[in-house]
Write the structure tokens for this entry.
Amino acid sequence: MTQEQKKVLHDIVAEILGLPKNRVIYAYQNAPQITDTFAVMRFYAYREEVPTEIVSAGEPGIEKLIAHNNLTLEIQIFTKIGTDLDACVMLNNLLNCLDKHTMMSQLDNAGIVIVQHEPIQDISELVDETSFQTRASVDITIRFTPTYLDDVGYIANVKIDGNTGKDLKINIETE
């Protein structure tokens, strides 16, 4: 998945959740935990869905390879302690809104398709032994189709001289 595709997903998630873009972060960033409500996106389990398709690119010696890949996107929501926000409700709303035609159109334009999602998991926790932080997680399977060009070269000229052994000469020339 390209960085541009990841950014499209990031911005859609932020928009649907109603969070500023800087509060939808990628996993494994070395930074202090945000104290307000925020979301974490983690891409993992990249896999080939079906073998790569090879098609003509329309010019001699160039092949176009179309890969069909899946990955899993984990989204976690952490709510600000002391608010009435519910992370499970927020994720449920996100999943429902991803089915909107406007969202599907944006994803389609970026070459992304939401294939399926797993159940939302409530992973709330007690923080500082005094209050709960609602926290939820969902895994979403995404299909994306990168394309690559391969310059395999081509044979520009062939000249064959010979005979069949029965006095029948062969002379083939191609371009």
Observations:
- The mean pLDDT is 88.
- The first strand starts at residue 24 and ends at 26.
